[in-house]
Amino acid sequence: MKLSVVCSESRLRELPSLREILDGLFIEFHAWYHNSELPEIELLQGLEECLEYSTYVLCVADSEDFNSAWLHYSLGYQRGRTDRMTFWILPEEAHSIPDWTSGFVVIPGSRRNIYDYYAEVEVSWSEETTKKMARHNISVRNIEVSPRAFTETVQKGDRFLMGLFLEAGFSPSLRDSSGVPVLNHAIRSGHTYLVPPLLEAGAELNGIAEDRSTTPIMDASAAGLVDLTRILIDMGAEMDHASRDGQTAVTLAVGNGHDEAAIALIKGGADVDLKDMLGMSARKYATLYNQKSILQAIDVI
């Protein structure tokens, strides 16, 4: 982050300590201070050079400076961008600042207040810079920076590009036009290596895909993805959510012949007696299909 600091002559003594604060936050800054002994043209030229350095400005002023030419020149240079200009004033002068400053950030406090404020600003600025860089890196690959492109990236299994979309600010719980979360798309496409980074980024563990009314663990067990099913169980995934047909994760695993996934769910505590719309449960399906290993696991439980 780069910062322009404009300072009144009366508060010039603040600059050395301010430098220590900003250096400690790794914030680069360029300073200008009002010097009444210099010609006005020379002063304004130096002020303009300082303001050109950054779009973020800290004005270190006292109450009398709010009527000064140099301060109003700084305001005009910012063209009304109130979010880019901050005033640091003396606490005892907080009551005497003009009303027009209400749209700006005004810090009437100590050096510690300045440190706390810019520590927070620097974090936000870094996050925004990361987003902009990620969006640029997506664009230079001739890929649209859009929710649809993010979903397609997950479906294709491109982990690096998915990471860029996450850095660019796209939600790990983003859904497509059919209401299917990208996490479910990763599972349905067989790209299980995308699941951990999506979950770490904050994807919903139990998000329900609107097209099938299935959760991630249901899609994983239906596809027989045993290792992923176990991971989701260990993470505390809801195992007894039922689809529109009344089928749960364990019912889907049994019905699709994925014994290992079904056994993992049974050992994890899945209810094997919940009935679907046909009145069948995982226990009944296992009996019907004579799936002995599943029945044995049920008996053990």
What this model shows, in words?
- This protein is an alpha/beta fold.
- 48% of the residues lie in helices and 8% in strands.
- It has a five-stranded parallel beta sheet, with helices on both faces.
- Strand 1, helix 1 and strand 2 form a beta-alpha-beta unit.
- Helix 2 packs parallel to helix 3 and helix 5 packs parallel to helix 7.
- It is elongated, with a radius of gyration of 30 Å.
Key features?
301 residues, Serine Threonine Protein Phosphatase 5, Tetratricopeptide repeat, 3 domains, 48% helix
Secondary structure category: alpha/beta
**Number of DSSP E strands:** 5
Query: What does the main sheet amount to?
Result: 5 strands, parallel
- The sequence of SSEs as H and E is EHEHEHEEHHHHHHHHHHH
Helix content bin: 40-55%
CATH topology name of the largest domain, in short, is: Rossmann fold
Give, in spatial order, the strands making up the sheet with the most strands: 2-1-3-4-5
